Amino acid sequence: xxxxxxLLVKSVGLVxxxxxxxxxxxxxxxxxxxxFQLRHGPNRTGPWGLLQPFADAVKLVFxxxxxxxxADRLIYRLAPMISLFVALAAYVVxxxxxxxxxxxxxxxxxxxxxxxxxxxxxxxxxxxxxGGWASQGKYTLLGALRSTAxxxxxxxxxxxxxxxxxxxxxxxxxxxxxxxxxRVPFIVLQPVGALIFLICxxxxxxxxPFDLPEGETELVGxxxxxxxxxxxxxxxxxxxxxxxxxxxxLTHLYLGGWHGPLxxxxxxxxxxxxxxxxxxxxxxxxxxxFRYDRLMSFGWKVLLPLAALNLLVTxxxxxxx
Amino acid sequence: xxxxxxxxxxxxLVAVAFVAITLAIxxxxxxxxxxxxxxxxxxxxxxxxxxxxxxxxxxxxxxxLVFLVFDVEIIFLYPWAVVLEQLGLFGLVEMLIFLGLLVxxxxxxxxxxxxxxx
Lengths: 321, 118
What we know:
The structure holds two protein chains of two kinds. Chain A is built from twelve helices and two strands, in the order αααββααααααααα. Chain A is mostly helical.
């Protein structure tokens, strides 16, 4: 184990970095959505709108924190904190570059890394379910229920599509999985698995076209309808940091992690994550929202059997060849 | 080993501290002016009807039950996948039987129209 002060510095650095990436991811999303719709996007605060995240942060900090009279006060306050904490904590096992000597470009390296990550990710549903329930509103309750049902349904297909990667890599440590892709990234060997995983992470992060939990036209804001100010911001931070976590995970599992020619590993990793994040925004700009019954039947009747089939074929090929 | 999870603990503490500090700063800066109308649950500007705990459909509960079964079964696949190459054909056949049971369960739920969202 590294010295505790080094760990502390790395932890603080990683959290600050995630906040910074979140802030600019949000700006870039608004910018790109603008470009997709032939608008300028935010362009008043600073050159090219670059100070927009800070303006948003200042605005949200100075907003009143409204707690509905009928709400369960303790859980209402706790829920957004759970959401944000889970999103941040998920990054603990993801390395951003190969270890150089004894220095590790990430926080922890438990031998069950991917399992720990999945365990943390599935806790994220608590923040949403508790927040929606504790607000004691009709929209929030329905939004929370929908969000929970969607998250658990797509979690199954996601967890199952990963097994193919584990068979090929023979490990659940993320470092080993990346090392196994030194020559061929797993997206080439596992195209179906990668596609299922991509669809599932879009659904897991409640992004368009699977953004039914916060479908404005029917449920107002979904589970966070009653939230305001900083606690509202926390749900947003959690959503975007979850996107970053999922994009990093997709990069490590299927896109070959930090492997790539010429450029240093960190740059390759950052480029791939940025490309996946751009894909998220592109999807949002392009696709209309799913209908809820189709969403559920797609998850259970298409993705889950397909993931099982993918797993079987992978296992059979690995054992028999 | 255990020492690795200590690092996870340190990072978790830092993350909790950040969340708490952000909220603490906010509570020093934000205004506080609650009154009855503002504290009513949002219902598109109307006066709320009844209380917020509306009944919801049983199918959410059924989906949660089915999910629980499958989730536990998928966890069993993880250790198997990691050592599959050492297990060889024996491991493959054994998992075929296990997955077969899983698929039968899914087909049963499908036929019983549990997976239908009306």
